[in-house]
Design goal:
about 375 residues, alpha+beta, 2 domains, 6-stranded mixed β-sheet, 4-stranded antiparallel β-sheet, 17 strands, elongated
Length: about 375
Amino acid sequence: MDIKTITENLIKFRTETGNTTEINRCFEYIETLFDSQIHKTVYRKDNLAPVMLLSNCTGYDFDVLVVGHIDVVPADDKMFIPSFEQGLLRGRGSLDMKSFATVGLDSLQYVIKNNLSLKFGVLLSSDEEKGSFGLDSFLKSYPQLTSKIVLDVDVAGDITKIVAKCKNPVFVKLIAEGQEAHGSTPWLGIDANEKILTALSNIRKYYPYFSKELPLPDNTWIDTVHFAKIEGGDVANVISNHCEALLDFRLTEKSTLLELEQNLTSCLPSGVIYRIISSSHPVVMDENNPYILQYKKLAETILQKNIEFEYIGGATDSRAFAERGSIVIMHSGSGNGMHASNEYVEWNSVEQLANIQKQFLAQIAG
């Protein structure tokens, strides 16, 4: 399988989250990469984003499953034209994460071609960038889907790092109600915007503000929140009677959803309520797990470099499989500019990851 050509072709599909037409076209292209030996499930329900599962076996109990996604964040047209120069493949999705989805597809072809004694699959969602609601529905519809080992290739950044922990993303909406009045007589109204600002100020007492302009905290494995969106008011000279704020919390494994809710309750003034939009669970892997150590040793041999464990604040779709008891190995290639206009992947790291993944599969197949 020519993984570079396939990755470039995948980048050309404008699979921005919600662009169902392009997502379906991309899935159809992926199907053409395999012959009749492949087993395919494409899950579509209501208006949810589709999910594709390709495997070398029937059933839904896997030995190894590669988990990733094909959707991307919005970008200018030019970013859907891949370019390659000085070892860097540029384009939307080059790093997050079409190159690494291709690695999983390459591994599937390798397992089939070499008749490895493994029940192996590749699971690709198409709304990971906006909450993975399609994947959540798919997993609820297939409770029997399990995998002993999950290879999570959606943690791009540095091939010399294996992620051992991911935080729990919790999205919260604050809603404040006030009373309209003319802007010149604020004492005749109740400003919903002020209520939200008070709530946000109180929340900062529990979850401090961090910035590139401020000193780095001594310990970054802590709970954080950023105020993603604040909306209130329609015109300048009217006191706002409604305001909302969207908050993005990232909680470590030491914190619970109940503790967060207790903190929120203590922070909200009269007239402000909160709603949990979505929550999950942190992914915490045992760094001494034999399979993880086996993978790490193999990667170090191939790269001729030491591999370190790291903790990240981001979240991936593998959290659903950690909840189901899978051993999750979170590892991908190197690059920069994720979600930015200069997104690129170091192509050598993609080829190295493909080699690591295939040799690991061959080892555990025995």
